[in-house]
């Protein structure tokens, strides 16, 4: 078995052959108790559409070859391939058809980018539809204009630590330039003892709106810094940054 053949094996079927069964399935996401360690709550996810896995407890993931290496005690690729082939047995596991190449990201075709203060009424109306205060939106977001396939578009832009932007409007969600976490300190140059963690920037803006309304059932009434992950793929960076905080308040998606 070579690498491409191993990558084409469906991870869900491979785990079933090993005796691991999903605790629950949600939108092609299969959640397992990790096969790499003992746990009582499922934190090992398989994206069945992409045929990739991610262990949130260890902040590691990849394709079936990489999983085979971890199951073999971080052995070589050849050892992982042999292990996968032995597990498949004489009757090969079902295969999936992988795309010949990843589609070109739409962001790569964006041209004539321009970032300005947030003021377009359509974007402010979008924030209002999400129950987010317009002044808070203006404080933390910019307005980005760009051309794509000879048409003009505009959206909210939320900056990250690498100089990139999370981009959002009512019809589009994406990222321009580097994907990274966003840090919003309570005071520049000073680290607080408490930090609030969010998965997406719209959650962060919603939190600030509730805080402005003095909603004590949700919000923390002490000075704190804020971190927006912008993607679960940034988990490793997030965990590294959280090391310096005594209190961490998580406002994450319930999945």
Automatic annotation (TrEMBL):
* Pfam families the UniProt entry points to: Toprim_2 (PF13155)
Q: Write down the InterPro entries for this protein, in alphabetical order.
A: DNA_primase_Znf_CHC2
- Superkingdom in the source lineage: Bacteria
- Could you provide one GO biological process annotation from this protein's UniProt record? DNA replication
Q: Name one GO molecular function term.
A: zinc ion binding
What is the name of the protein in this document?
Toprim domain-containing protein
Q: Which organism is it from?
A: Bacteroides fragilis
């Amino acid at each position: 078995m070579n690498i491409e053949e191993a990558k084409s094996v469906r991870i869900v079927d491979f785990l079933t052959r090993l005796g691991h069964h999903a605790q629950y399935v949600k939108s092609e996401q299969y959640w397992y108790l990790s096969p790499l360690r003992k746990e009582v709550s499922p934190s090992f996810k398989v994206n069945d559409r992409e045929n990739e896995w991610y262990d949130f407890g260890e902040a590691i993931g990849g394709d079936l070859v990489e999983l085979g290496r971890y199951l073999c005690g971080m052995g070589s690729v050849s050892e992982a391939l042999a292990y996968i082939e032995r597990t498949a047995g004489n009757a090969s596991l079902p295969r999936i058809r992988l795309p010949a190449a990843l589609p070109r990201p739409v962001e790569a075709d964006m041209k004539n980018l321009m970032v300005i203060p947030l003021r377009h009424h359509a974007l402010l109306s979008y924030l209002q539809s999400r129950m987010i205060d317009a002044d808070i939106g203006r404080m933390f977001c910019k307005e980005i204009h760009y051309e794509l396939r000879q048409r003009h578009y505009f959206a909210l832009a939320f900056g990250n630590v690498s100089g990139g932007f999370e981009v959002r409007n009512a019809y589009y969600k994406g990222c321009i330039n580097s994907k990274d976490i966003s840090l919003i300190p309570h005071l520049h140059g000073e680290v607080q003892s408490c930090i609030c963690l969010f998965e997406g920037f719209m959650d962060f803006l919603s939190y600030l709106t509730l805080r402005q309304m003095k909603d004590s059932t949700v919000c923390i009434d002490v000075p704190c810094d804020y971190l927006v992950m912008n993607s679960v793929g940034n988990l490793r960076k997030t965990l590294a940054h959280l090391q310096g905080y005594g209190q961490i308040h998580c406002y994450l998606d319930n999945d």
